[in-house]
Q: What sequence folds into this?
């Protein structure tokens, strides 16, 4: 059995602080560039809200980027960095296809 780590987004909890973007970019190859992060904060001026948006790679599988001290928690750095719990981890055991 494989453990699948999925990131759930709770948009109403997002405050637009961009800590998730920074954490994701921090664990990427140099140079540091938040524009290359797998998560971005989208601002909807009309509705007056901001919310996280994950790229397809992040939605499909765990990237492996973890904050120091995360150990075996299998929690992406972007989730650890979110102070408002707008990003939450769901872990699911999946049977091998073979």
A:
């Amino acid at each position: 059995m494989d453990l699948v780590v999925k990131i759930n987004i709770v948009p109403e909890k997002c405050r637009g602080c961009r800590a998730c973007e920074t954490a994701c970019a921090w664990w990427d190859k140099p140079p540091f560039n938040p524009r290359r992060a797998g998560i971005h904060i989208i601002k909807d001026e009309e509705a007056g809200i901001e919310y996280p948006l994950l790229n397809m790679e992040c939605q499909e599988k765990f990237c492996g980027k973890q904050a120091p001290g995360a150990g075996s928690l299998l929690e992406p750095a972007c989730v650890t960095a979110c102070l408002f719990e707008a990003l939450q981890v769901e872990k699911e055991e999946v049977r091998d296809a073979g």
Remarks:
- Residues 13 and 85 are 7 Å apart (CA to CA).
- Strands lie at 2-9, 39-44, 49-54, 87-94.
- Helices lie at 19-26, 56-60, 77-81.
